[in-house]
Write a structure and sequence with these properties.
Elements: E1 2-5, E2 16-19, E3 29-39, H1 41-47, E4 64-72, E5 84-88, E6 97-101, E7 105-107, H2 114-118, H3 121-134, E8 142-146, H4 151-162, E9 166-171, H5 174-183, E10 187-190, H6 196-203, E11 209-214, H7 220-227, E12 228-236, H8 249-255, E13 258-261, H9 269-282, H10 284-288, E14 296-301, H11 305-314, E15 320-324
Parallel strand pairs: 8-9, 8-11, 9-10, 11-12, 12-13, 14-15
Antiparallel strand pairs: 1-2, 3-4, 3-6, 3-15, 4-5, 5-7
Helix pairs in contact: 3-4, 6-7
Length: about 325
C-alpha cells in the first residue's frame, strides 16, 4: 500500500510516498480501506518532531479515518466486513489501509459522506470528553471557545448548541467571526480588535461564563480565569501559546474554579472504547439524522498532504481539512 510519511521531521515538504505492507488485524481490530483521512493539528506537531507516536502506534500520521472494513480479527463479528465506518486511530491514517480497534469505530449511514465521516472522530471525541465529561457542561450554561473556526472550535459550536449551551468564540478577524456566527455561535469576538475578557463581561452582564475550552494556554490562562463565573471550569486541550501559566490561587479559591485538561491519543484503548460507546448513544444519533455535520473546509489528495499541512499552518481554514485517499 501507499502511505505518506517522512524520514526526518521538518516542514510540510518532508512528506514522501512510502510503500508499506498492508497491516494485518489482530484479534479485536479491523482493517479499513481508507477513503478519507482527517488532518489535525497533532499531525502537524508530529511532522515537526514534537509529538512522537505512542508505543505500538503506526509512525504514519493520521488520527481519524473513514472507509470500508475489508478484513477483521478473530473476535470481531463476521458481518463487519463490508461495513462503512469512521474510526479514531492512534496513527496510520495517511495510508490506503489502516488498522482500527472495532470498539473505536462508528457506523457511517448512507446520508453521511465518507469525507464528512473522516472529519468527525478526532474533534467529536475531544469536544465531547472535555466539554461534557470533564467540564460537566449543562443546558443553559455558557461556553467560551478559543479558535472558533478551527476543527475543534466548529465542533464545539455545533455540539454546544445541540445540547443547549450558549457559545461564545474568539477568532482572529471579522470574516472568521462572521463564519463562526453562521455556523451557530451566539457571539464571536475578534480578539485582535478587542479585549476578549472585557467583551465576555459585557456579553454575560458581568457574570462570566461557566466553561472555557482552551487551546492556547500560556498567558491566556490568567485571562480565561477572569472570564469564568463562580464554580467555573477551565479545560485545556492544547498549549499552542506555551506550556507555562501564572495562576492567582486566591482567585481560584474565591471563585471555586476547577482547572482540568486532557490528551486523547495516548489514552488506553479501554477508555476510548467507553468514550466511543457513550458518543454512539448520545451525540452520534444527531449525526445520523443530519442535525450535526462537520464544518468542511477543503479536501486534498493524499499525495498533496504537504499542501494540506501548509494550509492548516496558514490558519485560514474554517472547519476541517481532509485527505482523499481512495474511492469514497
Amino acid at each position: 500500500m501507499t502511505a505518506m510519511g517522512f524520514d526526518v521531521p521538518g516542514g510540510p515538504e518532508v512528506f514522501r510516498p512510502q510503500t508499506l505492507p498492508v497491516p494485518i488485524p489482530s484479534e479485536n481490530e479491523v482493517l479499513v480501506k481508507v477513503a478519507f483521512a482527517g488532518v489535525n493539528r497533532p499531525d502537524v506537531i508530529q511532522r515537526m518532531g514534537h509529538y512522537p507516536a505512542p508505543p505500538g502506534a503506526s509512525p504514519i500520521p493520521g488520527l481519524e479515518i473513514a472507509g470500508e472494513i475489508v478484513a477483521s480479527g478473530e473476535s470481531v463479528i463476521p458481518d463487519a466486513t463490508g461495513q462503512r465506518v469512521c474510526a479514531l486511530v492512534t496513527g496510520g491514517g495517511y495510508a490506503e489501509y489502516c488498522l482500527a480497534k472495532i470498539e473505536h469505530c462508528l457506523p457511517v449511514s448512507d446520508g453521511l459522506s465518507l469525507a464528512e465521516a473522516a472529519a468527525l472522530p478526532e474533534t467529536l471525541f475531544t469536544v465531547w470528553h472535555n466539554v461534557f465529561e470533564r467540564g460537566w457542561a449543562g443546558e443553559g450554561e455558557t461556553l467560551l471557545v478559543h479558535g472558533g473556526t478551527s476543527g475543534i472550535g466548529t465542533m464545539a459550536i455545533k455540539l454546544g448548541k445541540a445540547f443547549g449551551l450558549d457559545v461564545i468564540v474568539t477568532c482572529g478577524n471579522d470574516a472568521k467571526c462572521a463564519a463562526a456566527k453562521a455556523i451557530g455561535a451566539d457571539h464571536a469576538i475578534n480578539y485582535k480588535a478587542a479585549d476578549f475578557v472585557e467583551e465576555v463581561k459585557t456579553i454575560t452582564a458581568g457574570k462570566g461564563v461557566q466553561l472555557v475550552l482552551d487551546m492556547v494556554s500560556g498567558d491566556y490562562v490568567t485571562r480565561n480565569l477572569a472570564c469564568l463565573a463562580e464554580d467555573g471550569r477551565h479545560i485545556t486541550i492544547a498549549v499552542l501559546g506555551g506550556m507555562q501559566a501564572e495562576l492567582n490561587m486566591a482567585q481560584i479559591m474565591v471563585k471555586r474554579l476547577t482547572l482540568t485538561g486532557s490528551t486523547l491519543r495516548a489514552r488506553p484503548d479501554e477508555f476510548k472504547a467507553l468514550l466511543c460507546d457513550e458518543i454512539s448513544r448520545t451525540a452520534w444519533p444527531l449525526v445520523e439524522t443530519g442535525k450535526i455535520r462537520p464544518e468542511m473546509d477543503q479536501v486534498f489528495a493524499l499525495a498533496d498532504v504537504g499542501a494540506a499541512h501548509a494550509h492548516m499552518e496558514a490558519g485560514d481554514h474554517i472547519g476541517k481539512i481532509v485527505l482523499e485517499v481512495g474511492q469514497g
